[in-house]
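Supplementary notes (optional reading)

For those who missed the lab, this is the record we used. Protein: Carboxylic ester hydrolase. Length: 335 residues.
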Amino acid sequence: MPWIAKLGSDYANAGANGSFSQNQWIGVTVQIRQACDLNDTVADNIISRPDHCSFDAIAADYLQCGGRFALQQGYCLNQNQIPTAAQFYKDYVIGTKTVFRGPELGSEVDLGLSGGYLTGTDPTTFDMEWAKDFLGYPDNYVYSDSMVSDAETQNPGMATADSFNLGDFSQNRGKIIMYQGLADGIIPAKGTTYFYEQTKSQTTGNIDSFLRYFQVPGMHHCWLSDTDADPAGANAFAPWMFGGAGQAGIVTASEAAQVLGKPEFDALEALRQWVEAAATDQNAPGPASITATTWFTGNQTVWRQRPLCPYGQIAALTPGAEPNNKSSWTCQTTS
């Protein structure tokens, strides 16, 4: 939560030359998607490999006014705004300590100027309320790095997630399916990946025997993906429905029925079957993939499906195959 307060505070202090209009942030969103989509071999408006795309590498050509691929005035950024935008994606570091890992490129909608963390004048209520409600800060407090140490000392709600050794959980045959939207700007993917990697390093044995971590390209916080007036009438770029918490309430009942209760498409059902199989076979394998789905607007017909692959693998398209069909993709080790 201190990262959220810092982000809103830094943006509010950027000044008139550093803050953005709504149209400019829309331009940033569109241009980052266009630039970064080129780095995962499939042109589908989904950023599947944000780790292969950097803000500094694309800013001059795609985001700054006058760049080779930049949008027109009113949608591009001036030279003073570029450093402000770049700051959003940086890790939060105090001295030599990394406090929080910044969001991936592609998470602009969650960060955005409408309903996100950023406004043109003041940090949003969401940015600032946690410190007042949980740390006892006054209404008129000004953000500083000391909030981090205050939060660590008080640890309200015992919410600090820094116990990574899950050996006891594993020995009791517990199973976890963990997932993370790569376009999530509220709980960014790098933090979840850090948790997974620390768990892997501090837990004895092969964590694949009890933990599967799935990254979901294009998915925002918990559900949905970027939307656009697609010529085919689709309401989302990326497949994101796989029976995750709260997802069934976002789609129609008919759409949910196509997914729920089927382990290939429903992560909760896949988890249930894994747990029950492990009750008699400690070495029962977890799901090799889970299929994510999205639908055409209004008619409840499947538009796109593709496999979500365990961390360390990525969905790869068979050359020449139809990219909207799940059978066109296989999980392959990342490079």
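If you only remember one thing from this example: Strands lie at 92-94, 97-100, 176-181, 211-216, 290-295, 302-308, 313-317, 329-333.
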